[in-house]
Design goal:
By secondary structure, the chain is an all-alpha fold. It has a single domain (31-300), classed as MetI-like fold, CATH 1.10.3720.10. The chain has helices at residues 2-31, 33-55, 87-122, 124-138, 142-153, 157-183, 187-194, 199-207, 212-235, 247-253, 263-290, 292-300.
Length: 301
Amino acid sequence: MNVIHEKEPIAQLSRRLRKEQRLLTFLRLRSNHALLIGSIILAILIILGIVGPLLTPYDPFAMKVVDRLKPPSATHWFGTDEFGRDLLTRVLYGARVSISIGLVVTLLSSVLGLIIGIYASFYRTLDHILMRICDGLIAFPGILLAIALMATLGASVLNVIIALTVVFTPNIARIIRSTALIVREQTYIEAMHAQGASHSRILWRHVVPNTLSPLLIQAAFVFAEAILSEAALSFLGAGIPAPEPSWGNILQASKPVISKAWWMVAFPGSALILSVLSLNLLGDGLRDHLDPRAKRKQKKA
């Protein structure tokens, strides 16, 4: 009984500390305005992309030429395009397409970059091979490399994902490698080696968790760049093939009629700006939250 009574205050103290830690984390998140604003805008865009197309009465592919290039009105809130299709419906479907492609590219680039980076940091031969390949890919401007890959593979959603994954993976791999090189020099990693732990155990149980913070921060910026790059490819005619709605396709279709149909540029362009802005704010907020020392350095500078 005495043992139980001695442990009860410790258990209560532990619960109180965990509660205070959760409260402190919540307060830090609430005071992080960039993270909050970016998350709210991004959540709204994702919800609109998922739910919005179900609420509109129009088919994004149905053409009605007699209603072509109608300005915004009570019937068509965003107006109509050059084929009489409801622009609001196409922008909402475009949100689903563009954000989905950006998310898939971010996930694939993060996973591949993580694997390449951590193994390059631990194996010298692999480091020379993988990092020289990454250097070669980084040497090309991202959009030119993506256009070259799309010209080789052909225009389709899958090929856009493949091309953009190839473009963004090297940068993530180099960031993970540099972080892993710092982690592997820590004393506890040397102790794990001395205890006979395998390289795989050290990599995945001790190195990888310490590289997740920079990976999450970089992933937010890659998400924004992937959405912007997909729009650029579609705008140049090398991305999502028509008539599939994406923000880049809608902007590409607006070029011949931009002087008399401003809404075809304003609304998809605003959606693209909001998505990229929200993800950049989210990345800045994550950096401030996960690495407070970087924020203090910026204030001192």
